Amino acid sequence: LSSGQRVPLGPLGVSPRLRVALDYERGQVAFFDAPRRRLIFAFPSASFGGSRLRPWFLVWGQGARVTLCP
What we know:
By secondary structure, this protein is mainly beta. It has strands at 18-23, 28-33, 38-42. Strands 1-2-3 form a three-stranded antiparallel sheet, with no helix packed on it.
């Protein structure tokens, strides 16, 4: 969905939970601060072209971790 370059998000603070929303048919992926229901970042529309999508997350920092919830 991107050129592989980092996307600056600004000072958001640290949210304990993120929501990732995927609308495959519209080609949209968005990230939200789940407790506050606030949009953090939405990628511009993209065409997935029938490709299988696989999530990839990069988390860094001391004690950082990712837990996927249904």
